[in-house]
Amino acid sequence: MLNQQKEASLAAWRELAAQQDDLDPEQRYDALLKAADAMEEKGLISSAEWRQLVRDAGNLFTHNEEHSHS
Questions:
Q1: Domain count along the chain
Q2: Which long-range contacts (CB under 8 A, 24 or more apart) does 63-66 make?
Q3: Which range among 9-23, 27-41, 54-68 shows the weakest confidence by mean pLDDT?
Q4: What is the 3-state secondary structure (H, E, C) of the chain?
Q5: Which domain holds residue 15?
Q6: Is the predicted pLDDT of residue 68 greater than 70, yes or no?
Q7: What confidence score (pLDDT) does residue 4 get?
Q8: CA 1/CA 17 separation, integer angstroms
Q9: What is the predicted pLDDT for the residue at 65?
């Protein structure tokens, strides 16, 4: 059950990360961090997995910022 919850949460996180239309990059970055925090608090992910999600969110934000200034 916990594993299914983890997979569903990670799938939702990835879906949010892939969205380009609804939120500006800063709002999406903030939402991704909050989602990663919530998953860690529920015990769905380890601290190492949390760090990776935070890194991934930062990379997406940086990538989007670079493209918005081009």
A1: 1
A2: 64/25, 64/28, 65/25
A3: 54-68
A4: CHHHHHHHHHHHHHHHHHCCCCCCHHHHHHHHHHHHHHHHHCCCCCHHHHHHHHHHHHHHHHHHHHHHCC
A5: 2-68
A6: no
A7: 95
A8: 24
A9: 64
